[in-house]
Amino acid sequence: MKYIYVVLIESYTGLGKILKKFTGYRYEHIAVSLDKSLTEFYSFSRKQHHHPFKAGFMKEYRDYYAFEEYQRFYSKIFAIPVTEEKYDEICGFIERLTEDDEQIFNLFAMLTTPIIHGFRVYKAHNCMDFTARVIEMAGVELEKPFYKYDIPDIEKLLTGYPVKEGYVKRRDSAEYEKYVEKSNVFTGISEFLTAVCKLTKRCLFKKPADEIY
After folding, report:
1. Residue-range domain boundaries for the chain
2. Partner of 171 for a Cys bridge, out of 62, 74, 78, 141, CB 3.0 to 4.6 A?
């Protein structure tokens, strides 16, 4: 028997701290790990810490969550048992996303989740719908479409699969220095406009159903 690990993560970014004050909820990010060492994580997120709008499918590491002065991050971990067949299917799904350069972050759905509870855009996803899709592939029955789940929903869904809640120690990765490279306001504006343009075009001219996800 294999396991898929779903990790709820407390974010120490500026946006994460603001959200926490408004919602009172501890976790602002969610990711999937394929082994219990929790060395590598998969999610849709920013590709560099100081570039919030340069985002898409990511392989993340512990020091992406415990960055700069932080030496640990708070998390809640769930372990979902899966067959070898389902495990291989999920690994294949993650590999397809990794190799697909068209995959981008669904900023529109992320911003409107509290109001309309998620919507699909062609080859555009966020950490929540990606994780919910993996959970569905693992054999957990969803009560609504995967793209309608937020992090509290997923936490409730996985009540029967808890492993640990607490701090996870930082572990340095080879990708860290690139991840924390600084940005500037002009680069940020350019990346924001690029993301909005891509998403708008896909909303207007692409059908989400055309994507095999």
Report:
1. 2-210
2. 62
